[in-house]
Amino acid sequence: MVEKGKEGEELLRFASEFADSDTLAIEEELGHGYVRLKVTEAERRQALQDVRCVEDVVKELVRNARDAGAGSIYVTFQKEKGRWRNITVLDNGAGIPSSLHRKIFEARVTSKVKGVVQDCFGVHGRGMALYSIRQAAEDICLIDSVEQAGTIIQAHIDTDKLPEKKDQSTFPRLEKNEDGETIIAGGPHNVPRVLTEFALDSGRTELYLGSNAEILATLYYHSIELRKLWASGKGDFNRPLWFELGRIKEGRTLHQFAATKLGLTVSERNAFRILEYEIQPLMSINELLMEGGINLPVRRADLHRQPKTSWSDQLARRISQEDIALICGRLEEVIGDIGDKYYLAADAPVIKRRKNRLIISLGLLEKEED
């Protein structure tokens, strides 16, 4: 037997298929062309005004993370097949209680009981941000959220329907005003600009922007630092959702952890490259601004940084790819110098880093006499 509640839902769905869409949206006809909309329709229209481009999606997701008290916010920003924009925002804020995981995408659901928040983007706190993104994006989902450990939210966007600026690599031009404050003086209204505005407005929250692999590399090395602090007993902090990353030493495991726990799609090859320091972690946008980003044109590539030597207990990984290339070049010079003596030539050297060793492979060839 079908329950009465289910019968009612089925009847409503059946009726909605044949009813005029205007009828379903209108609560009352007021005459002279005026109507009173139903609450659900008013919310839907407001939502469409809130999110009109990809930059708005990033803005609202980062606002939510900041308002949750996050000290660090990581934004992955990756294009797929020239059309689909995938955005994942990870934070170490207060997190969302498990009982509310399905409720947060509904209209008017907010944690700001005492009022709205006013920031550089205007008013925030009406409980409409996630609902608005849900209406505008192809998909939005909560990857994970744990109280006192943070939140991971992911959005999938069709840029043919929800546009974005063409240039997503260039940061805005900055200058000092008469009061000595750093302000935005020009540049594209893209995602780097949105995050720069956040960094200038709220310097306490560190903001990171990169691809899935770049953000995973950054989380990995941050996890190593956090785990060392925790082990020493000096870490007075909550353990974020990516805390366990730092214990991983194998590429396949890192690849699987990223996909299942963090919602980050990274190939096994790139996971291995992260472990080998070939994909560099990122400095925060805040740090970039402090290190001279005001005086020079800045692009996303400028956020790359060398890992700290303290991030690895495997000594070979402390040597950068640039220095590995330098060693290879010197080896070729040495073999060239002594090769004539033994009638030998050599292939290009190959150097692999394995824990506390450098493994050098050098193929030798018989050198033909002149």
Task: Sum up the structure in keywords.
single chain; 370 residues; alpha+beta; Heat Shock Protein 90; 5-stranded mixed beta sheet; two-stranded antiparallel sheet; 11 helices; elongated
CATH class of the largest domain: Alpha Beta
Question: What's the story with the biggest beta sheet?
Answer: 5 strands, mixed
Q: Work out the strand percent.
A: 15-25%
CATH architecture of the largest domain: 2-Layer Sandwich
Question: Whole-number radius of gyration?
Answer: 27 Å
Secondary structure category: alpha+beta
CATH structural fold name of the largest domain:
Heat Shock Protein 90
Number of helices: 11
Could you give the order of the helices and strands? HHEEHHEEEEHEEEEHEHHHHHEEEE
- Amount of helix: 25-40%
Write the layout of secondary structure elements.
Layout lengths: L3 H15 L2 H5 E6 L2 E4 L1 H12 L3 H14 L4 E9 L3 E8 L25 E3 L2 E3 L4 H8 L2 E8 L3 E9 L14 E4 L5 E5 L4 H11 L4 E5 L1 H21 L18 H11 L6 H8 L9 H6 L30 H22 L1 E3 L3 E5 L2 E5 L2 E3 L4
Parallel strand pairs: 3-11
Antiparallel strand pairs: 1-2, 3-4, 4-8, 5-6, 7-8, 9-10, 12-15, 13-14
How would you explain this protein's 3D organization?
This protein is α+β, with helices and mostly antiparallel strands and 370 residues long. The protein folds into two domains: 47-313, Heat Shock Protein 90 (2-Layer Sandwich), CATH 3.30.565; 321-366, no CATH class. It has eleven helices and 15 strands. The chain has helices at residues 4-18, 21-25, 39-50, 54-67, 129-136, 191-201, 212-232, 251-261, 268-275, 285-290, 321-342, and strands spanning 26-31, 34-37, 72-80, 84-91, 117-119, 122-124, 139-146, 150-158, 173-176, 182-186, 206-210, 344-346, 350-354, 357-361, 364-366. The strands form six sheets. Strands 7-8-4-3-11 form a five-stranded mixed sheet, sandwiched between helices. A hairpin with a 3-residue loop joins strand 7 and strand 8 (150-158). Helix 7 crosses helix 9 and helix 8 packs across helix 9. The longest helix is centred in the C-terminal third of the chain and has 22 residues, at 321-342. The termini are far apart. 30% of the residues are buried.
